[in-house]
């Protein structure tokens, strides 16, 4: 496909700002949603939620510019990794210092993979069936937090009706909206959903931005090490690695970019540094998103330089708390509804990979995919009082549905149902 602006084309000032604004609008919803969800899970008040989102925006802004100029050098949007939400939820709000220490170590793990040149040697582990399961596990194991968001206000009938209606409207908008508008479905849902919620359910007590100072520390020092939590997050970083490589490869191949192996390696290295930075300041680490192709095809602009104004915009917004503070009024049911839509998209990509790669040839192949998902669901919805009975040392692993799902699929794919190579005659 021929684009108006190719990968390394430099744009004049006006088109650079216009295309940059579009990338900014695509980037900001995931930052706000993940920031708000983590704040909700960790019980942060309005001032601390604003401070958390500020730090998150600063990292994403720096990361976007770093990847475009130094890392993969592709027009790929960056955002907080939803898979790390799973580790945060499973580890418990009371273990916050240990969580962000584990994120630093996870980032170090990615960086070591980059500098050691081990990425190419580990690719045999990530078969297509394992990648499919990992993608689906992210959606399945986030179900409990989505459930809590949707029904947080105790109005079961209203919340259920609102969530289903909002998801159907988002799906309809995704079908009907064309061009660049299709890439703004999540942002429009965020704004319109909040307005509709307050119009039908009453306004909050005050819509003034809270100016109270945050008590959230800027740096996560001193580090606190917990072996179980660290191991749990390393499994999450396996999924993050798959996501990172998949996003970069899909965009790179679509644009016919050269030296894709080197681009992928550099992207993992930069992602590692950014995750170490994120953990050090106490926020979720970033990953690249494959949604970029939609905006590229819609606008005809494949230039990586168009993402630089978006990165700068995210970084600048991090220092304007009054703007970010307005987003503290997003109702949990709106966040939960958007998460349903995003996780449905995640599952859609997983199912599409099953179909296009023809990876289920018999019953055992179906078991490799289905059993890990069932085990993950079982653990994810296990009552809290039963989860508390698991020894603290192994709870972050055994009590984490995502981690146990990954362990199960690895055992099934490379152990129990391992494809035997034909004997030489």
Task: Walk me through the structure.
This is Xanthine/uracil/vitamin C permease. With 425 residues, this protein is an all-alpha fold. The protein has one domain. It is 68% helix and 1% strand. It contains 19 helices and two strands. The chain has helices at 13-41, 46-69, 82-91, 96-116, 119-122, 128-141, 143-150, 156-176, 185-201, 227-254, 260-281, 292-299, 308-317, 321-326, 332-357, 363-380, 384-387, 395-398, 401-416, and strands spanning 78-80, 286-288. Strands 1-2 form a two-stranded antiparallel sheet. Helix 1 (13-41) crosses helix 15 (332-357) and helix 2 (46-69) packs antiparallel against helix 13 (308-317). The longest helix has 29 residues, at 13-41. It is globular and about 55 Å long.
Structural class comes to mainly alpha
> How many beta-strand runs?
2
How many domain regions?
A: 1
Name the overall outline. Answer: globular
The parts where pLDDT drops under 50 for at least 5 residues are none
Helical amount among residues, as a percent range?
55-70%
Sheet-strand content, in percent, reads under 5%
Average of the residue pLDDT scores: 86
Cα end-to-end separation: 47 Å
Please report the number of helical segments: 19
- The strands making up the biggest β-sheet line up spatially as 1-2
Query: Rg from C-alpha positions?
Result: 21 Å
Biggest beta sheet summary: 2 strands, antiparallel
User: What is the string of helix and strand elements?
Assistant: HHEHHHHHHHHHEHHHHHHHH
Keywords: Membrane, Transmembrane, Transmembrane helix, Transport
InterPro entries: NCS2 (IPR006043)
Transmembrane segments: 12-39, 51-69, 76-93, 99-119, 131-150, 156-173, 180-199, 225-246, 267-287, 312-342, 363-381, 393-412
Pfam families: Xan_ur_permease (PF00860)
